[in-house]
Specification:
This protein is an alpha+beta fold. The protein contains 7 helices and 5 strands. It is 45% helix and 19% strand.
């Protein structure tokens, strides 16, 4: 089955499904065995990793350009919806979420974020649910950050603000009023 040739340029940001957003550094030719193969060299700065993908296999591997801002906004909007049915046992749902995360598809990432996000400050998450949620959110935030020229943490916060995800309660935080009263009593 013939595949269409993907047209990427050096310096362009691309999405590799299982790794997230990376920057295409160059296309180089390597000799493997007796064959010369053109390879795309992609740097994933956050993971401290460089990946080489054969140009002929780029589409098959799922490598794609960044989504448009409009498509990413649609994905984030879909994550605001009601969580999907949870009739499967956790192990099967977790495997499905893992598959969605590794698909690299913004809509599937949004599905994971939608299903696993906390709806109120009192909601708790299991460790594995939290890890899946954070991975899906990070993958969405990577594209959001590049498209909106911001850092990853700010992009994650912005997405959670858009979704209305409640902030976690810091149990170690000191109320400012308590701190002021404490300082005043020390002076006496």
């Amino acid at each position: 089955m013939p595949t269409k040739k993907l047209d990427f340029k050096s310096g362009q940001y691309v999405v590799y499904p299982t790794q997230g957003v990376g920057k295409l550094l160059r296309v180089e030719e390597q000799t493997i065995g007796d064959q010369k193969i053109k390879m795309m060299v992609i740097d994933f700065e956050r993971n401290h990793m460089t990946l080489r993908v054969p140009v002929d296999r780029a589409e098959l591997s799922g490598l794609r350009p960044l989504s448009s801002a409009k498509k990413l906004d649609e994905a984030i909007a879909s994550a605001k919806g009601k969580a999907g049915a949870k009739r499967m046992i956790w192990a099967r749902r977790a495997a499905q979420y893992e598959e969605n995360i590794n698909s690299g598809d913004p809509m599937k990432l949004a599905e994971v974020v939608r299903d696993l996000q906390r709806r109120s400050a009192a909601d708790t998450m299991t460790f594995s649910a939290r890890q899946l949620y954070l991975r899906a959110l990070e993958r969405m935030a990577q594209e959001f950050a590049v498209l909106h020229k911001m850092d990853l943490d700010a992009a994650s916060e912005k997405i959670e603000d858009i979704l209305g995800v409640p902030k976690e309660i810091d149990l170690n935080a000191v109320d400012e009023d308590e701190e002021i009263e404490s300082d005043e009593s020390d002076e006496e």
